[in-house]
Amino acid sequence: MKKFYPILFALFLLQTTSLFGQRYLNEVFTNVTKTPNIVYSNNISVLTGTPTPIDLRFDLYEPTGDTEATRPLVLYFHTGSFLPILRNQTATGDRADSATAEMCRQFARRGYVAASVDYRLGWNPLGTTQDIRTGTLLLAVYRAIQDARACVRYFKKSYSVDGNPYKIDTNRIILCGQGSGGYITMAYATLDKTQEIQLLKFLAGETNATYGFVQGQPYVNQQVWGDYDGFNAAPGFGVSNHPGYSGRVRMAVNMGGALGDSIWLEQGDVPLVAFHSVNDPFAPFGVGNVIVPTTGQFVVDVIGSQAIIKRSKNFGNQDVFNIPYNDPYTTRANSINNGLEGLFPFELPIPPDSPLNGQAGPWEWISYTDLQAIAPFYGVTSGGVDTIYQSAFFSNPNVNNKDKALAYIDTIQGYLAPRIVQVLQLPGYYTGFSTLTSGDFTVTVAPNPASDRVNIQVDAAIRINSIELLDISGRRLTAISQLNNNLASLNTSSLSKGMYLVRIQSDKGVISTRFMKD
Fold first, then answer.
1. Which of 92, 376, 411, 495 places its Cα 20 to 30 Å from the Cα of 425?
2. CA–CA separation, 517 vs 41, rounded Å?
3. How far is C-alpha 293 from the chain's CA centre?
4. Strand 464-471 versus strand 52-63 pairing type
5. Is 16 helix (H, G, I), strand (E, B) or coil?
6. pTM of the predicted model, to two decimals?
C-alpha cells in the first residue's frame, strides 16, 4: 500500500497521453495566482461564548494568465473539528492548511477557480452532557451551511452586480469538503426541509439555558438561528447576507466527514463523490457514531461515505457517472467500492500503538516549523505544539511525509476530474453512445444528438415499469408509464441544449443512458 499511489499516478500519466493538455481533466497551467482574505459576508460568531460579529473570508486561487471569460468554481471547506487550529488540539483547522491549499492549487492548475472558504467555528466537545456535545455540534454544522450558502450567493451577486470580477460561470459551482468540511458539503447538498432537523435524535433531552436548549425541542431553532440560507434569524443570532440570489450548486464532494441522517438524502439531490478511509476514527465509513477523540464520549450517530453513495445510487442521483471511464484511478476504486460509482475507499492499516484504532486524512501533511510559527497567535506554548504534533501521528503515521500526501491528492484529483467534467458538461465530457446493453436488456436512443424528438427502444422481452427523463443534475423532468411495443417517443423541442439522462425501470432492474439535445 505504501508504494501503490505514486505508482498509480505514474501509470495514469502513461495511459492518458491522448488527454495531455486537456483543460479541466489535466493540469494545463504552470502557475497559480492567490488572492487572500477576501470578505464574502459578516455574521455572528459564538466561538468565545459571547455573540460577536465577524468577517468571513476566502482565499482565491486562479490559473495565472488564463484568458477564459468564465470558469467553473470550486468552493473548498477545510477540516478542524469546528474549532480553531491548535486550540482544537490538532494541526489542522485553517483555510491555509497544507492539503487544503494544495487541493485548491491543483484545481486552479486544471483551469478552475478555487476558493478556500472560512466558516464560523464553535462547539463544545467536552460538554458534560450528551445534549451539550450533540447540540453544539449540530449548531456548528448548521451555521457553517449558512455560511457556505452565503458564499455561493456572494459569487452569484458579484456576477450580477459587480461585473463578474472573478470570471465565474455561476451555473458551474461545486463544493468540496475535507474532514469537518465534508460534513458541511454533504449537509449542504441534502438538508433542505425543516422536519429533517426535527428528528428524535436532534431534540434536546434537557433544558439548558446556557445553550438555549429546550427539552423536547430541536437543538436548531430556526426562529432563533434563521433558515438554511441564514435569513430571518433573531437579532444577535445571525445576519442575512446577499438575499435574492440562488444557493444552487451542481455537485458535492467529501474527503472524510459524514451525513447527519440518511433521511436527508433524497431523489433529485446533486451527484456526490466521496473519498474515505475505511477505518476512519473520526467519521464512520458506513453507519456509525461520532465520538470525541480525546474522551471517547458519544456525540451522534451518522452515515458515512459508503452509506451515502449507496443511497444516492439507489435514488439514481449517481446516474450521471455511468459512463465507460478508462483510467487506473477508476479501476482501483471499482475494485474495492462494491459497485458504488463515485466512492473511492482508502484501505489503510491501523497505526500500531494508536489509541484511535484507525487512520484518516492520508492526504494531509504538517510542518512542525509552521506549527511553532503560528502557536503564539493561538496562545499555545511550545510544549503544547510538541503534544499536538506527536498526536497527529496517531491518525496518520505519515503526516510528516509531504510526498506521500501529495500522491494521495494526485489520486483524488485523478478520480475526481473526469466526474466533475461529466457533471458540469465541460470539454471532454462523454457523449459517445446511443446504445447501452445491460446483462438483461438493451436500450437504444436515437437520434443522438436529438433535435425535436428522441426515440427510446427497449427489448420486447422485458416489462417496463417507467421511463424517466432527467436533467444532468438528476432532476426528474417527466416520466412515461406506457409504451407502444416497447417504444417511447419524447418531444424534446422545448429542452435547452445539453445532456439529458434516461432512466428505465423494469422487471429486470434499472438501466440508464443519455442523449444530447443539440
1. 411
2. 39
3. 23
4. unpaired
5. coil
6. 0.82
**Residue 330: closest CA among 437, 433, 427, 416:** 416
Query: Cell 465507460, residue?
Result: 324
Cell triple for 61: 486561487
Dihedral over Cα of 194, 198, 202, 203: its sign: positive
Phi, psi (degrees; rounded to nearest 5) at 400: -95, 10
Query: How far apart are alpha carbons 98 and 420 in whole angstroms?
Result: 23
Write the pLDDT tens digit of every residue in 30-66: 999 999 999 999 999 999 889 999 999 999 999 999 9
Cell of 455: 426515440
What is the fold of 435-517?
Immunoglobulin-like (2.60.40)
For the stretch 300-328, pLDDT in tens is 999 999 999 999 999 999 999 988 888 89
4-424: in CATH 3.90.1180.10: no
Contact 451, 491 (CB under 8 A): no
Length of the chain: 518
203: which residues sit within 8 A by CB, 6+ positions away?
Answer: 216, 217, 218, 219
Alpha carbon 394 to chain centroid distance? 25
Query: The C-alpha cell of 429 is what?
Result: 465530457
Query: Which of 271, 274, 183 is closest to 512 using CA atoms?
Result: 271
Give CATH 3.40.50.1820 domain extents, the chain.
Answer: 4-424
User: In angstroms, rounded to a whole number, what is the distance separating the alpha carbons of residues 285 and 273?
Assistant: 14
Enter the C-alpha cell of residue 109: 492548475
Which amino acid belongs to residue 50?
T
CATH 2.60.40.1930 boundaries in the chain: 435-517
